[in-house]
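ping. complex inputs:
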Amino acid sequence: MSETSASRAVVVDHVTKLYRRYGRKHTVGTLKSALLAGRARHSLSPDSAVPALVDVSFQVDPGETLGIVGPNGSGKSTLLKLLAGIVRPTQGSVTVEGRLGALLELGAGFHPEISGRENIEINGLLLGLTRRQIAQRFDEIVRFAELEEFLDAPLKTYSSGMAVRLGFSIAAHSDPDVLLVDEVLAVGDERFAHRCLEKFAEFERAGKTLLLVSHDLALVAEHCRRALWLDGGRLLADGPAAETVARYRERVAQEEGKGRLEEGERRGDAETRGRGEGIGSGAATIEQVRLLDGAGKPAGRVRSGEAARLEMEVDAPSPLSDFVFGFALTTVAGSVVFGTNTDLEGFQPAQFAGRAVVGLEIPSLTLAPGVYCVDTAIHARDGAPYDYRRDVLRFEVTADRGTAGVWSPPRRWSFGGAIRWKT
Amino acid sequence: MLPLLRAWRQRALILALTRRELQARYRNGVLGYFWSLVNPLLLLLVYATVFRLVFKPRADVHPYSLFLFSGVLTWGFVSSALLDAAETFRANGPLLRKTTVAPEVFPAVAVGARLSHLLLALPVLAAAILVAGILGAVRPSLEALAFPAVVFLLTLAVFGIALAVSSLAVHFGDVRDLVANLLTLAFFLTPILYPIDSVPDRFRPWLRANPFATFFAAIHDSAFFFRPIPAADWLWMTGTALVCLGVGAAIFERLRDSIAEEA
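pong. complex structure:
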């Protein structure tokens, strides 16, 4: 509390942004009619407004990595544009300390007819670098983008992946104090996405501030310390990333559930009922859920066959003597891959009071490559839930080769008799 | 005057984007350069033919095709720069919405690119004057050196108008058509096809109200008649340039915040 706003990297103070609709703009806004009607000034005044952000306030410290999540149209991109100074707040104020870099679209400003070399220069200038800085960082930019051989070819001969690599490389080397990134990792292959994330980590270590808008919730949960959840232009949550993401997921699941429930009721289908997202008496609560890789680091990605550990931070405000902890893995489509709980595995509850951590170690995660969801629960032995959270975390399993199904056990082929293979 | 300051701060970017415009157009090297000259030369050929063979040319502007050359070339710069300015924010919408670039950059690039075309065509004009001089049709003098100064002041005026046109075009769909029509009208109300002296005395003050008239009279003085430009004309041109810049910058500043939202 004693910190002054001078030490903040970003201060957003009660910001409201209305997008203005001008007089009959959508039909025929003509200067002639405005002048003839003697209402040029009036025509330049908005006659209706659409709120994109409503009374949003938050601060970001230097060195923080902040994720911003929310559905489409929730105001995420508007927020970044306000921070970048592209649009101005209708009310409130936005302050950014230090050099700002905005990566709102990779390669915005690339021109197809001129060479990669010339595009680097123009893009660098667009990002606010001087010619000298561009010259100094040129080789590094090219090396990171891995485009040495194509430097003098016109950009239109590049694949989209190459253009994306170049765009990111220029932005990453523009050395801002505050970097705004809008959903740019969705493009490009996995290897490139990985290198981007490494660059972000490097950025964080260097004490730079990163604001990341993404629909990839696992990425936000994994790579951001803190996250904002925007919905309908309002700030619904601001807190630790895993928590914000979990709350957002819960809401999405609820809405989906509601939709299905209504649909189910219309069809008289009872199966869709009782999914139990985030339900329970609250006698005990799940504070945070995470997946750790073999090295014990939080991960959004695990290699098939390697070790993994699921953890939940739990809290029982008043002592409990009847409790069961459970984990389940499901596919994105919702079918259970694996599930277990302390009751099934023979643990007899004695006492659970206050904060605790429950871990489930899996020495070899023999799942087929794909995305999996984690469900967690604390409930009584008779099944009455204290806190039951569905799809609280998603992670990806990777492997060199894809396989069908969800299980990828250690295996060996053998062939006897008249079969030969090309070697 | 803030837009002018911002444009000045972004001069490296403006130069780079202008060069990009030219490179994209001239990527075929010499041939590309040749094609950029085709349009003004063709226009010149048409005017020279029509006005020599169909209408009686005036005896006081001989050779008439050389008289036309400097004015037609320069008018090509004025009209194409303003038409480009009317479309520049629409054409650069993605850049405006996705980067932190100052919007002043775009009208400046529109003017800069067209100015570059004019400057690239000047060697041809100089050659034409030289040939006409050698043939004894005109007697070139050092007064021709005033031409670049006139073009400089004209460019300032055009940039001022481009600031107004570009920002207004974001809000009003008909600005481009309006500009195109006004330019057609202005073409005939500006001494381009005729010397200003041939306008009857009683109309001349009205003609001077056209901001471009004095510039083109001065262009003819320097690049065809090779006589000094009157001091009053220098003053008038400087004043016109400053007023255009001031008014253009004020309109731009008023509309600036909404450019990225509306473009």
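The longest strand of chain A covers residues 46-60.
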